[in-house]
Sequence to fold (454 residues):
Amino acid sequence: MQNINREHPDYVARKAMWKQYKDLYAGGEHLRLNACEYLVRRQKEPGQVYEERLRRVFYENYVGSIVDWYAATLMRREPMLLFEGSDTGAKSFYNLLSDNCDLKGTNLHEFFRQRFVEVMVCGSSFVVVDFPKAGGVAQTRAEEDASGRSRAYLSEYSADELINWNYDETGGLEWVVIRTSCLQQSKVTDAKWEKETRWIYYDRENYQVFRKAGEAQATELVDEGRHGLAAQRRVPVFEMKVSEGLWLMNKAALLQLEHFNKSNALSWALTMGLFASPVIFSDKEWNQVMGESYFIQLGKEDRFGWTEPEGKVYQIAADNLVRLKDEIYRVCYLMNQAGTSSDVRMSGLSKQRDFGVTQEVLRGYGDMLKDSMKQVLRAIAEARRDEVSIDVSGMDEFDIGDFSNELDDAKKLLDLGIASETLKKQVFKKLAFKYLCDARQEIKNRVADEIDAG
Fold:
């Protein structure tokens, strides 16, 4: 196998960008601790002044709020998972998977919501399908289920953890290398905290796990074998990705950085303007001491005054900050949420048209998320040899309205008298799943089965 520490050229080119984007999304204390990387130092600015500006730094995190708004709005209702077939054992498994998909108690809805946020920030996110490792070979499906071998689960990895990869001529992954690190207590008597790094290598059939704890120890192979999707001859890594146009952090990051520097510069100027400097107009040499406990003596022609800014540049800077804020919302398709204080009044039709654009963008995100969920769930079904068909729907309506409106629309559709029992059942399922969006998947499946049974 190739050197596990080798990094793909695209990874090398983007890893600094990913760190910056994560800092801009997080904001708060996380960004303040790294402010020296983003607060531009003026030409010939004294070191003490720059250090003081760093201590006073603040950050108005518009892009972080925008990303969270999209995630909350898109997944306000849980996606509807539909499992059709007579395999009751498989349906029971997917009920369990829906409630706890990563063996950490995270439900499937929340797991993919977190992945969506990461896609918005970093442009992509990765999901790995895995199965528990067990010794020996199961002779029957019942033995496989009883031993826990068939208990598929998901693991998440961020874009900056996938350090190397290769695609074949059809665009499919041939192999990947994932690198993670964390703090672990040493197993020796001093029990120091030390950095542990792990590398996971996947190809179409096998996996290998390498580990290095601390700086002095060598890298060791700790696990290897065939992964859960080996029978499909595919790498068990699924990428969630959006186009450049829908990668919001990439569109807004430079604007957010410009706003950050301008707002801090204006704040510093306003603060300094509060401390007026004395000005002495005199032809004589000035050597008097000034202070609260002193006085000054002026000659007949001497004058004394204070400097203070006129404020014109402050107003220009304040107007520029408003424009930058509006531009951040505009490039993120949320101009109607900019909240500008200008005197421009928008008509109801204009507001509706602006939100219509936002809805189309949300539907694009919804399609990406549904496709990713279907790929993952169908790969699990194929690996487990489940006799079910899987579909994912929803995430296409974002107006917070009364449920009675949807009931009225469904009633009008059914009143047309279309001679189709399938249409009738699908309408009932859609209404039931929307009304029971927060219910357990087991309940939803039972309702769907009862509707199908008539």
Summary: The CA atoms of residues 145 and 423 lie 36 Å apart. The mean pLDDT is 85.
